[in-house]
Amino acid sequence: MLGLEKKDFNLLMVVVVLSLFAPLILNIFPKDSAFAFFNGGYPDLMQRFAIFGIFAIGFNILFGLTGYLSFGHAAFLGVGSYAAVWMFKLLGYNVLPGLILSVVVAGLLSVVIGYISLRRSGIYFSILTLAFAQMMYSIAYSDLFGRWLGITLTNGETGLQVYNDDPQILMGPNSSTVPHFFGLEMNSRLTLPVGPWEFVFPVGYYFTAIFLIIAFYLSVRIFRSPFGLMLRAVKSNNQRMTYTGLNPRPYTLAAFIISGMYAGLAGGLLASMDPLAGAERMYWTESGAVVIMTILGGVGTLIGPVLGAGTIKYMENIISKMNEKLLHEWFSFLPDSIEKGLVWFASWFTGEGWHMTQGVVFMLVIIFLPGGLVEGGQKLMNRFKGKSADDAATKQPAE
Description:
- This protein has 17 helices and 6 strands.
- The C terminus is likely disordered.
- Helix 1 packs antiparallel against helix 8 and helix 4 crosses helix 10.
- A two-stranded antiparallel ribbon has the order 1-6. A two-stranded antiparallel ribbon has the order 2-3.
- By secondary structure, it is mainly α.
- Helices cover 64% and strands 5% of the residues.
- The chain has a domain of 277 residues: ABC transporter involved in vitamin B12 uptake, BtuC.
């Protein structure tokens, strides 16, 4: 069905179900319970799950299939955001033109960066992409091109945003003044109270979730296509492929461009949820984040990047909000000396120290689950099915 094998179609249905029912799945604790803090079903976080899932899926097409590790994908994310905001400024708040331009501009930029960077491989390729991304960050942060042209192109460190005196030539007297899709506003939501629970169904999230599902479907088709097999051959033995008379560069460049367009789409969606574009989206930490997401979920797997993106964004938004006051409330039933000791220890891994938690989780996954969270899920399934480790090792990793 849909041109997919049964296994791949079932995996697609898993993504569809998780996307559709995310507001329910992520709000498992009652609103006023002591554990409501751990609920992740609020609009901004769910939107980031979907957007960075798209970002990671695209990155996995390059890294997972070809083995080329890019440290510069944040450049495409940032360019996509800038392109979308410029469409808001020139045309209006309809998100469709902005998303189209985001994908096109990111694709064109990836042609240039990819053509130059793919002349090298291994660590040299990675350093080249990092250098390009940092160049783009510096250009955006200083608005270098804008100053040369005598206009405001990126608005420097303040960031690009929409002002009342912008042209917005497609805006009518009754047009919406927030990002929308032909009148369907991204910040609209439906709140459904059910007993002690409160479920929020945001329009913006479901809009991004549709793109996530489409992006995932396209990645499956790429993975299973002859083009995907060629990319796997590049990863397996690039030199041997060259000896057969095949030139791998067009295939790797195509993968790089597709990956960049995914990142541009993610950047455009970020701007569609919040019409602001800043240079910080091009910084090297954003490029590093998508690498961690992909490795954490499972490099070269289909659903792994989505799981990795969700895990990282959950930790970033939930664990980072834990403060000492909250920790004291949780440990208040213990004797004072033990309570203070636990709060002191936990404070190293929460709040501003949430990166410590991320580092520990990442380290444990690398050591015990080299295949990422997907490998962990496969091991659990094999255990429930009663399969031995030897039997499981003879099969390919789950995707």
